[in-house]
């Protein structure tokens, strides 16, 4: 399997088991380069396992994964291509901020010390302060600094703001977007907060039970998904370019969430817009058997 210039991360049949339990299985995924990609899904969907496989923290039980044109963590050069901020934004509590920067410089051949020190100065962090005495938001910013200053091709963030208060979360995401603009990074951001994904990302992947339910540019996803309401009727009569994601019926009314790859002309339906959160929730609510039925025609919008 060889990567294309369009994909910074590719997985085929990827799986990882822990004893008899599969944390991720039979996952096919394409992450386009040059984008800020939001990876969303419920707890247990396999998001963290996928990202740990992509960064080389775990090895696959089955299938393949390729990142930035190579196997994750296969050599120092490959390691240098990927920056990683884990869910608990790990730092060493007994080390000072300056110690972390020195450690980053020793471990990363492409380390940008001027960038790291300028970020620390701008954030108002005391270089002599021990990381264990920093606030949660400050620790997250220090971890982000370490990830950015290694000058990676791909920055992987596994729910880095999950434990932060709203102000710290906003500051972290604003700093992330500035770094993306300055360095032209590819980013994969895993989050269960769809509002953060909508604010930050331009491409979205919805992962449920290890399967990609839908993937595409955020603007295209919003433009092609609609809520249809009308008199109770069988949705089987919809045109072939309209795919039903979820449906509900009362005695008199039918409500559908659909993906439409063409115009909707039927006057019997009232067509309403959907936000990203509505779209994500619709795919999360889709019955499990629908995943199996639609797998050969994976819904990818590019």
TrEMBL record:
Limits of the ABC transporter domain: 9-234
Any Pfam family hit: ABC_tran
Keywords: ATP-binding, Nucleotide-binding, Transport
Record GO terms (molecular function): ATP binding
Top-level taxon of the source organism: Bacteria
UniProt xrefs under Gene3D superfamilies: P-loop containing nucleotide triphosphate hydrolases (3.40.50.300)
Transmembrane segments: none
SUPFAM superfamilies: P-loop containing nucleoside triphosphate hydrolases
UniProt cross-references to CDD domains, sorted A to Z: ABC_DR_subfamily_A
Protein name: ABC transporter ATP-binding protein
UniProt organism field: Streptomyces vulcanius
């Amino acid at each position: 399997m060889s990567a294309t210039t369009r994909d910074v991360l590719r997985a085929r049949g990827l799986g990882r088991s822990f004893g008899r339990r599969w944390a991720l299985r039979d996952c096919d995924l394409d992450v386009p380069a040059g984008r800020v990609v939001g990876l969303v899904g419920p707890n247990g969907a396999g998001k963290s396992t996928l990202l740990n496989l992509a960064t080389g923290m775990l090895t696959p039980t089955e299938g393949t994964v390729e990142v930035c044109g190579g196997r994750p963590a296969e050599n120092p050069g490959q390691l240098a291509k990927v920056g990683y901020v884990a869910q608990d934004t790990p730092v060493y509590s007994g080390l000072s901020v300056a110690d972390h920067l020195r450690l980053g410089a020793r471990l990363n051949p492409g380390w940008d010390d001027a960038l790291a020190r300028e970020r620390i100065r701008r954030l108002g962090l005391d270089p002599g302060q021990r990381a264990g005495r920093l606030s949660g938001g400050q620790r997250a910013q220090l971890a982000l600094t370490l990830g950015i200053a290694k000058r990676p091709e791909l920055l992987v963030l596994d729910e880095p703001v999950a434990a932060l208060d709203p102000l710290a979360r906003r500051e972290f995401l604003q700093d992330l977007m500035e770094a993306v603009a300055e360095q032209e990074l590819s980013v994969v951001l895993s989050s269960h907060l769809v509002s953060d994904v909508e604010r930050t990302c331009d491409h979205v992947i919805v992962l449920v039970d290890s399967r990609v339910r839908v993937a595409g540019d955020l603007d295209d996803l919003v433009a092609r998904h609609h809520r249809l309401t009308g008199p109770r009727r069988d949705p089987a009569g919809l045109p072939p370019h309209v795919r039903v994601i979820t449906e509900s019926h009362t005695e008199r009314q039918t409500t559908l969430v659909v993906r439409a790859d063409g115009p909707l002309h039927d006057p019997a339906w009232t067509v309403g817009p959907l936000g990203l959160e509505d779209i994500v929730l619709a795919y999360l609510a889709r019955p499990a058997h629908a995943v199996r039925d639609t797998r050969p025609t994976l819904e990818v919008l590019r």
